[in-house]
């Protein structure tokens, strides 16, 4: 699940190639892309991960080379743009995805058929469900709606509660 994109930019560092536990070649790199909006420009950094032939191809480039890539924009890319908040909700992620013109990702997050995948995707991004022990369904009341909250795994319970309480503030 993720939005399909085509991006063109410059590599921030030399790509790093290594072998996975399964013996597959994997290459990672960072790509600087200039995004223009009304009256301004900003540099977005995308993490690139390639396997097999893609890894081999990506590994031939060097820092500063212009590269065009096709791939999927994932949930972690959105969380990175949000500054990896301590806690979040699916509603917040959907709103942010739309704000950043990641409409396919927003639609995927809203799709009820994909709902069971959300906790697993959040887990891969370093987040876990944070249940409200005061409610039978474990949901939190945020801005008048009962919602599931996801919190960074490394936070203590007290830190998760404080961060969740901040979600209700305008």
Topology diagram in text:
Elements lengths: L2 E9 L4 E4 L5 E13 L2 E12 L1 H6 L7 E8 L1 H7 L5 E3 H10 L3 H8 L7 H7 L2 E3 L10 E3 L2 E3 L1 E4 L4 H10 L4
Antiparallel strand pairs: 1-3, 1-5, 2-3, 3-4, 6-10, 7-10, 8-9
Helix pairs in contact: 3-4
Give me some keywords for this one.
single chain; 6 helices; 10 strands; 3-stranded antiparallel beta sheet; 5-stranded antiparallel beta sheet; alpha+beta
What does this protein structure show overall?
With 170 residues, the protein is an alpha+beta fold. Helix content is 28%, strand content 36%. It has six helices and ten strands, in the order E-E-E-E-H-E-H-E-H-H-H-E-E-E-E-H. It has helices spanning 53-58, 75-81, 90-99, 103-110, 118-124, 157-166, and strands at residues 3-11, 16-19, 25-37, 40-51, 66-73, 87-89, 127-129, 140-142, 145-147, 149-152. The strands form three sheets. Strands 1, 2, 3, 4 and 5 form a five-stranded antiparallel beta sheet that branches. Helix 3 (90-99) runs antiparallel to helix 4. The chain is globular. The model has no long low-confidence stretch (mean pLDDT 88).
């Amino acid at each position: 699940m993720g939005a399909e994109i085509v991006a063109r930019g410059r590599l921030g560092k030399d790509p790093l190639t290594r072998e996975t536990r399964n013996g597959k070649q994997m290459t990672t790199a960072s790509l600087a892309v200039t995004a223009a909006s009304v009256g301004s420009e900003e540099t977005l950094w995308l993490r690139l991960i390639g396997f097999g032939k893609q890894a081999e191809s990506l590994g031939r480039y060097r820092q500063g080379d212009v590269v065009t890539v096709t791939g999927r924009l994932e949930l972690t890319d959105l969380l990175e743009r949000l500054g990896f908040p301590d806690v979040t909700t699916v509603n917040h992620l959907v709103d942010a995805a739309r704000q950043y013109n990641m409409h396919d990702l927003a639609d995927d997050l809203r799709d009820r058929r994909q709902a069971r995948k959300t906790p697993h995707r959040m887990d891969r991004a370093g987040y876990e469900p944070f249940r409200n022990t005061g409610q039978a369904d474990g949901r939190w009341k945020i801005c008048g709606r009962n919602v599931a909250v996801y919190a960074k795994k490394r936070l203590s319970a007290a830190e998760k509660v404080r961060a969740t309480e901040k979600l209700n503030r305008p």
